[in-house]
Amino acid sequence: MEIWVNPACSKCRSALSVLDGAGADYTVRRYLEDPPSAAEIEAVLERLGMEPWDLARMTEPVAKELGLRSWPRTPADRARWITTLSEHPKLIQRPIITADDGTTVVGRTEETVRSVLP
Questions:
Q1: What is the tens place of the pLDDT at every residue in 70-81?
Q2: 12 given a catalytic annotation
Q3: Which of 9, 32, 43, 66 is catalytic?
Q4: Overall fold of domain 2-114
């Protein structure tokens, strides 16, 4: 299991506590220090069944600077969004947990985190 975290995020710390409490074996990826590539983001989006604009944190200052709210959200624009998420990882919703079986969730609630436990 792998979890993408920002240590300053309370939702990430809560997810880690749930995983620890369940005795889960996992690897932590501090995705702000080790940003995912565009290909990794594409793979996560596929597993999540989400579009890149659905994974973007629109309240981040960089989102406002880039004007993300006004960007088109069409299949033709996916690559631009994915590249932007890779270049500005702070825009990525967190924590993202990928279970050993490939199941992937944005673990913002305890229930969602528990859903990927064996």
A1: 999 999 999 999
A2: no
A3: 9
A4: Glutaredoxin (3.40.30)
